[in-house]
Amino acid sequence: MTYPLIVLPFVVVTVLVTLATLGRPRFRERMASSGLTALVLVGLTLVFDNLMIAVDLFSYPQEHLSGLKLGLAPIEDFAYPLCAAFLVPAVYTLLSAPPSPKDAA
């Protein structure tokens, strides 16, 4: 099994759960916050994955990778912070009580 195939279910679940919050209040603000969070997490992943790979803390078998890299880090590694940035707020939103009619007024 390749890393892109391992990542695929996480991406699909993230997209579906995030879209399930489309009708909830403040969707646009939540997506903007998630986007900013994703940028920060991807930046941190870029720096620290490259450092950890450079000092040989771990490596990836080349036959399991897509071949695309940012520095030394395979592109697949960036799916996890992206999913976290969007999935965590979406799950929180779905688990929170929907606003009451009094709150809307």
Give the helix proportion (percent range).
55-70%
What Rg, in angstroms, do the CA atoms define? 17 Å
Distance between the termini: 52 Å
Report the biggest beta sheet as strand number plus sense, adding barrel if it closes. Answer: 2 strands, antiparallel
Given the helix and strand composition, which structural class is it?
mainly alpha
Attribute tags:
105 residues; mainly alpha; two-stranded antiparallel ribbon; 2 strands
What is the compact description of this entry?
The chain has 105 residues and is mainly alpha-helical. It has helices at 3-20, 27-54, 79-95, 101-104; strands at 69-70, 73-74.
What does this structure look like?
The chain is mainly alpha-helical and 105 residues long. The chain has a domain at 35-94. Helix content is 64%, strand content 4%. It contains four helices and two strands. It has a two-stranded antiparallel ribbon. A hairpin with a 2-residue loop joins strand 1 (69-70) and strand 2 (73-74). The longest helix is centred in the middle third of the chain and has 28 residues, at 27-54. It starts with a helix and ends with a helix. The model has no long low-confidence stretch (mean pLDDT 90).
